[in-house]
Hints:
single chain, 194 residues, alpha/beta, Rossmann fold, 35% helix, globular
Amino acid sequence: MVKLTGKTKVKTAVFISGRGSNLKSLIKFANLKKSPIQIKLILSTNIRAKGLSFARKHNIKYKTFKFEDKTRDEMNVLKYLNKNEISLICLAGFMKILSINFIKKFNGKILNIHPSLLPKYKGLNTHQRVIKNKEKFSGCTVHFVNSRLDAGKIIMQKKIKVKKNDTAKSLASRILKQEHVLYPKALGKLFFNR
Length: 194
């Protein structure tokens, strides 16, 4: 558990690649008086990411990195995070895999939200695989990021029933709504042990 001192909020960066719906729920959460986090930065791999509109709307500093030269770009990201005194990264639909070197060098915590009940269905196309395997349940997981894909310590999960008529699309849509609730809850648990 991370200890908060007084009224200090944890300076947080959110990494996105697309529409930013989880980012939107994290911003809403960060704006609450009791929230343990302050979103200082939004980083994207995609200059056209729809989620960047939330950065502009809420006047949050943002920057894009293409990750074409992974080693160089990761070093630049680390410098940028250090410059802005970031001590927590929330990955929210971030479609690049961070290197072991980056994870080790970032002197803080990195969290991710994944649309399955880990350790099942790591990686991509989770909903298609859940439907194909006729799973009765699916859900989402907030976990720490470590050197192995979707294998870090689990903080919280939300389980939902897979309906008989579910498609990958309908299941994804229902799980996404749960993600928006789970991510802030997991942050609350992490910082306040609730």
